[in-house]
Amino acid sequence: MRDNDQPLVLVVDDEVDLVTLLTYNLEREGYRVLAAYDGEEALLLASEQRPDLVLLDWMLPHVSGLDVCRQLRRGSRKIHDIPVIMLTARGEEGDRIRGLNSGADDYVAKPFSTPELMARIKAVLRRALPPHADEILMYSDLIMDLSAHKVRRGNRDVHLGPTEFRLLRHFMQHPGRVFSREQLLDIVWGHDVYVELRTVDVHIRRLRKALNEHVVGDSKLVEPVDLIRTIRSAGYALDREAQA
Asked: Residue 77 burial (CB < 10 Å; 0-12/13-18/19+)?
């Protein structure tokens, strides 16, 4: 957040009327707003201005919303953890999964309720803020610096999206404890936002993939232990011993 405590939201959509409507409602809620009408402009503004959140349409000229989201997640440290809410008329379950797999933190289908969208924006921004300053969490070969918003495993940095960061933070604060999908939804996403249970599985897969990338050292690949344990019909836990 900035010194004036007014979050900056980047609205990305090629429909001028919708951008105008969203800008009006966001400014009425106290946000500052940037607008982009295609994917290339969105990436440029994100890099230059570093918004606190991006409202991103799927179907965009030049660069699609999915590709914009992927490029943000692969981008520099300045932009890779910007929260993204995908706005799209593609409301099928498969499309929602694709949107989440691209790195989006939430997914809102058009036409949408403006009050619901504002509630989702508040929830995503609230989740994106680290709750503790100057705190270091450690488990096995993982180190999480909450104040710097950094994660290391062994000798390498682990690059996580904001939702994966919150999931890992919760697991590291409660190692060995099993959490159901419902519990993780309430804790990580919040009580006031409707998110499907399968969303948890998508983000767990992304977290597991980021943690388990091969570590290169001494000219050989070292396969790291999978720290995320899946308990059938129960949920997930951070548990090194169970995977050894």
From this structure: exposed
Quote the Cα angle for 72-75-81, to 5°: 60
- Rounded distance between C-alpha atoms, residue 218 and residue 155, angstroms: 12
Q: Is the dihedral of CA 110, 113, 116, 122 positive or negative?
A: positive
Kindly report whether the global pTM for this prediction surpasses the value 0.70: no
Is the domain spanning 136-243 CATH 2.30.30.240? The answer is no
**How far is CA 90 from each of CA 73, 119, 163, 193, 241, rounded to the nearest angstrom?**
22, 21, 22, 20, 42
Residue ranges matching CATH 3.40.50.2300 in the chain:
8-128
**How many C-beta neighbours within 10 Å does residue 102 have?**
21
Q: Which pLDDT tens digit goes with each residue over 10-58?
A: 999 999 999 999 999 999 888 999 999 999 999 999 999 899 999 999 8
Kindly report whether the peptide bond that precedes residue 111 is cis, defined as omega within 30 degrees of 0.
yes
CB 75 within 8 A of CB 44: no
